[in-house]
Amino acid sequence: MTGTVADLGGMLAGMTPTPVPGVVHFCKVGFDDPRLAELATQALCTFREVEDMTLILTQAQADAAGLAGDQPMAQITLGVYSSLEGVGLTAAVATALAEAGIACNMVAAFHHDHAFVPAAQVDDAMAVLTAISSAARA
Q1: Strand-strand pairing, 105-108 and 53-58
Q2: Separation between Cα atoms, residue 78 and residue 81, nearest integer Å
Q3: Number of C-beta neighbours around residue 50 at 10 A
């Protein structure tokens, strides 16, 4: 692993957006659902909200649990080791995608940031993200 990058220009320039194969779904599971513990261990990501547990599941996992919704999403890993204290990466990515009419849900993990976009728009999103990264390197 290389060092983390905290400045916005460096984060954008170092971004190497890569689509993750497959489709995922943001699913909600009630705290009283007996499947919650098992599904949570299978999930790509979990987040506890007041109302329910949100799980990001693969298409196969969501289908098997009867949780696949009508919003299939694609994951794009930004590929830069962004600092948890870095400022502006989420805003820059979300703004560029919004200007292109592409919805975006961001998840920041320890090593990388991940953009979740509608699966049907993943190619368009990749073009936008590649363009802002290239512009930052110029």
Answers
A1: unpaired
A2: 9
A3: 4
**Comparing C-alpha atoms, which of 102, 132, 101 is closest to residue 115?**
102
Residue pair 100/115 in contact by the 8 Å Cβ criterion:
no
CA 26 – CA 110 distance, rounded (Å): 20
- What element of type H or E holds 24? strand 18-29
Question: Count H helices, E strands: the chain?
Answer: 5, 6
**DSSP for residue 52:** -
Q: Residue 34 and residue 1: Cα distance in Å, rounded?
A: 39
Tens of pLDDT, residues 19-69? 999 999 999 999 999 999 999 999 999 999 999 999 999 999 999 999 988
